Amino acid sequence: MRGQPQVRPAEVVAVRTLSPSIVRVALDVPGFESLQVPDEGCVLTFPLDGSTVAGDDVERGHWYTVRRVEGDRLTFDVIVHEGGAASAWARRGRPGDQLSLTYQNSWFTRPDGAEWQLLLVDTTGLPAAGRIAEEAPAGMRTIVVAEVPSAADEQELPGAEVTWVHNPEVVHGGSELERIAREVQLPDGPGYVYVAGEAAATRAVRKYLRHELELPADSYGVIGYWRCDAAAWAERVARSTVDIGELWERAEAEATDEQEALDLYEERLGHAGLL
Ligand SMILES: Cc1cc2nc3c(=O)[nH]c(=O)nc-3n(C[C@H](O)[C@H](O)[C@H](O)COP(=O)(O)OP(=O)(O)OC[C@H]3O[C@@H](n4cnc5c(N)ncnc54)[C@H](O)[C@@H]3O)c2cc1C
């Protein structure tokens, strides 16, 4: 994350368990301006154990999708899992807790003329899938294929044709998104595929869409939302002399489109042992 963002205080107004894996959190964020893009994400910084107030160290924050925006009131769905400050806070969070919100961004770039959208996600991508489905333009066909630990994590996604895949191993790095992607029949006509989930799983799906299905580069967007090997990867990055930001900038400068840049970037990250 580059540049200093504006740090916005966010007060928790409601916390409720939505399912065994998901805690829904409502925040008041005075002055929030939405990007008006359905996979809008923000970096949230959570209070550490024993505190009700987030620190101002923005690098400790993590990306979360704004599931719903109503003026200054924002809803987030936080996945609970083993380890992690965000997940730990979600289990004990209460109204009145103070979080902070910094960076905002979006990755969803459905081309004009798309007649359908396929949203292939694990549990962390469900908030984005839900908002993308809700905010779809009239006439857009929305297909969601969601990998969640069990049937208890299913939820209503109005406006979408939904297939649920139950995989308790998804939380331990055993995502089957690539196998699932291979089994999905894409509709005819112009469309857009959005993929969000564990980093290695989504990388494999992107390779499949690009190099086997050979979809046009602007007809899909694939985002790694989390890493099952986060600690080991952070250690490898800390030990490495490679500047990951510079690696990406070089790939972008050499490539003719984002997908080619990602091919170059991932190849070089692999050589550096940083995939
Ligand atoms: C654009 C974007 C949008 C996102 N939107 C959401 C969202 O709406 N809701 C959401 O819950 N997450 C979302 N994520 C993912 C979230 O940022 C990560 O899961 C984050 O790492 C969680 O932080 P933590 O403090 O709980 O765990 P960390 O401190 O990052 O990690 C601690 C340990 O938990 C493991 N871990 C991290 N996340 C998970 C997980 N989901 N399941 C199992 N193990 C995990 C790590 O491998 C590590 O071992 C999004 C990510 C991106 C990039």
Descriptive report:
This protein is of the alpha/beta class and 275 residues long. The protein folds into three domains: 8-105, Beta Barrel (Elongation Factor Tu (Ef-tu), domain 3); 107-228, Rossmann fold, CATH 3.40.50; 229-275, no CATH class. It is built from seven helices and twelve strands. It has a seven-stranded antiparallel sheet with strand order 4-3-7-1-2-6-5. Helix 4 links the parallel strand 11 (191-198) and strand 12. Helix 3 runs parallel beside helix 4 and helix 6 (244-254) packs across helix 7. It starts with 7 loop residues before the first strand and ends with a helix. The relative contact order is 0.12. The model has no long low-confidence stretch (mean pLDDT 94). It binds flavin-adenine dinucleotide.
Key terms:
275 residues, Elongation Factor Tu (Ef-tu), domain 3, five-stranded parallel sheet, 7 helices, 12 strands, 27% helix, binds flavin-adenine dinucleotide
CATH superfamily of the largest domain: Nucleotide-binding domain of ferredoxin-NADP reductase (FNR) module
Number of domain units:
3
Main β-sheet description: 7 strands, antiparallel
Q: Do you know the CATH topology of the largest domain?
A: Rossmann fold
Query: Termini distance?
Result: 18 Å
Number of helices: 7
Tell me, briefly, the overall form.
globular
Question: What is the helix fraction of residues, given as a range?
Answer: 25-40%
Associated small molecules:
flavin-adenine dinucleotide
Query: Care to count the β-strands?
Result: 12
Strand content: 25-35%
What's the SSE pattern? EEEEEEHEEHEEHEHEHHH
Low-confidence parts? none
Rg estimate, integer Å: 18 Å
Top CATH class of the largest domain? Alpha Beta
Mean pLDDT across all amino acids: 94
Instruction: Assign the structural class, choosing from mainly alpha, mainly beta, alpha/beta, alpha+beta, or little secondary structure.
Output: alpha/beta
Adjacency order of strands in the biggest sheet? 4-3-7-1-2-6-5
CATH architecture level-2 label of the largest domain: 3-Layer(aba) Sandwich
